[in-house]
Amino acid sequence: MYKSELNGGIAMKKVNTFVYEGLVFKPYKLLQGEEATLFNISQRKVSSKLTPENWDSETFFEAAQVVNGKEYDLFEVNGIVVLPGKTCLYEYK
User: Fold this and answer.
1) Residue 12: what are its φ and ψ, rounded to 5°?
2) Neighbour-count burial for 58-84, b at 16+ CB within 10 Å, e otherwise
3) Which of 11-20, 41-50, 72-81 has the lowest mean pLDDT?
4) What is the tens place of the pLDDT at every residue in 35-48?
5) Is residue 42 exposed (0-12), middle (13-18) or buried (19+ Cβ within 10 Å)?
6) How large a percentage of the chain has pLDDT more than 90?
7) Which end of the chain is more exposed for a tag (fewer CB within 10 A), N or C?
8) What does the pLDDT average to over 17-34?
9) Residue 26: what are its φ and ψ, rounded to 5°?
10) Beta bridge partners of 5
11) Higher per-residue pLDDT: 13 or 47
12) Got the DSSP string for 26-72?
């Protein structure tokens, strides 16, 4: 869960996963260019049974902010790449 980095002689811990509703998420990718178009995204997303019962996209993305301080579009959970949506997680193929 943590990766050590040396910063001015002080070892810093860098978080590369986070937990949301009991699931461990790892940032996977930021979509760019053509792959980030609505058409291309809609062709690659399918319904997922991984959506937690208490899914809330706003609190998910708040939790995701602890991961490297970056914003991601895709995350990996249980070996599956997912795209968080407003109402659920979509599997991204």
Assistant:
1) -110, 140
2) eebeeebeebeeeebbbbbbeeebbbb
3) 11-20
4) 999 999 999 999 88
5) exposed
6) 69
7) C
8) 95
9) -125, 130
10) 12
11) 47
12) EEEE---GGGGSHHHHHHHEEE-TT--TT--HHHHHHHHTTTTT---
Report in angstroms the alpha-carbon separations of 22 from 61, 81, 93.
15, 17, 23
CA distance 5 to 89: 32
Q: Using the predicted structure, report yes or no on whether residue 32 has a pLDDT greater than 70.
A: yes
In angstroms, the CA 50 to CA 82 distance is 9
